[in-house]
Design brief:
about 250 residues, Heat Shock Protein 90, 7 strands
C-alpha cells in the first residue's frame, strides 16, 4: 500500500521522537558519568580531612559529615533518577530477523526526502551493490539510524547540495556510508527548513570533544552497539569540507 502524506508525517514525527529520546538518554549518561568522578573525589578528600582534623572539634566533624552525606545523596540521585530513566535505551531491545538491505536504503532515502530533502532541494546519489546479501538485525532500528544519518547530512548541507549514500558488503558485515560537503552554518540558519529540534542542532554546531560525536547522533551509536557493530562519526569538518558518517552491522549468511 502506498504511503499517504499523513502516513509520512506521522512517521517523521515518530522518527524525530526516537532521536530526541536517545539524545536525552545520552545526555543523562554524560551527566551520570561526568558527575561521579568529582563526587568520588570530594568523598575521598572528606575522609582525608577527617583524619587530619581534631576529633574534639565537633563543628568540623559535623561539616565533614555533612559533606559526605551530601555526596552520598547525589550519588543516590544519579542511581535512582538518571540511571533508571535511561534504562530504556541503555538495554536496547532489538528483534533480529534476516532482511535484504536494498529496500531499506530506498525507504530511508524516501523518508528523508519527504521530511526535509525536498524542502532543501537536496539530491541523493545511492550506490547499492549489496545484491542478495542478507542482514541479521532489527530492520526498523537500522532504518531509524540510516534516516538520522541522512537527515543530519541534509541539516548540515547547503540548499541544492548532493548527498552520497552507499552500502558495501564484506564477508562479515554490511557498511552504510553517508558522505556530503559540510555546511555547518546551515544547522542554525532559521531561514532554512529543519526537521531536527533546535537544541540538537545548536549542540551539533559546537566543537565536539575528542572521541565524542554530536548528541543528536546517539541513536545511531546505540543501534550499532546493540547489533555488535560500530558507528563512526568524526567531528563535523569546516565549511565546504567533506563529511562522512558510517554504520557497520554484522552480516548473516545468504
Amino acid at each position: 500500500m502506498a504511503s499517504t502524506p499523513q502516513n509520512r508525517t506521522e512517521r517523521t514525527a515518530r522518527l524525530c521522537a526516537e532521536v530526541a529520546l536517545f539524545m536525552r538518554d545520552h545526555v543523562l549518561s554524560r551527566v551520570s558519568h561526568d558527575l561521579r568522578s568529582p563526587l568520588n573525589a570530594i568523598h575521598s578528600w572528606a575522609y582525608v580531612l577527617e583524619r587530619k582534623i581534631d576529633n574534639a572539634d565537633a563543628a568540623a566533624q559535623r561539616a565533614l559529615g555533612g559533606i559526605r552525606t551530601g555526596v552520598e545523596q547525589q550519588v543516590k540521585l544519579l542511581e535512582t533518577l538518571v540511571d533508571t530513566t535511561r534504562a530504556q535505551t541503555r538495554k536496547l531491545h532489538i528483534e533480529r530477523e534476516p532482511f535484504a538491505p536494498a529496500a531499506l536504503l530506498a525507504d530511508a532515502v524516501d523518508d528523508v526526502r519527504v521530511s526535509l530533502g525536498d524542502a532543501r532541494g537536496v539530491s541523493f546519489e545511492v550506490q547499492d551493490p549489496t545484491g542478495a546479501a542478507m542482514l541479521d538485525g532489527d530492520r526498523e532500528r537500522i532504518g531509524q539510524a540510516l534516516w538520522l544519518m541522512l537527515a543530519f547530512a541534509v541539516e548540515t548541507s547547503a540548499p541544492g547540495a548532493s548527498i552520497a549514500f552507499a552500502a558495501n558488503v564484506t564477508v562479515t558485515a554490511a557498511q552504510f556510508e553517508v558522505k556530503w560537503r559540510a555546511t555547518p552554518r546551515a544547522l542554525t540558519d532559521e531561514t532554512l527548513a529543519h526537521v531536527l529540534e533546535p537544541f540538537a542542532r545548536t549542540q551539533a554546531s559546537e566543537p565536539q570533544e575528542a572521541g565524542r560525536h554530536a548528541w543528536v547522533l546517539a541513536l545511531c551509536q546505540r543501534v550499532a552497539e546493540a547489533h555488535g557493530g560500530r558507528f563512526e562519526a568524526p567531528a563535523l569538518p569546516g565549511e565546504g569540507e567533506d563529511a562522512v558518517l558510517v554504520l557497520n552491522v554484522p552480516l548473516s549468511g545468504v
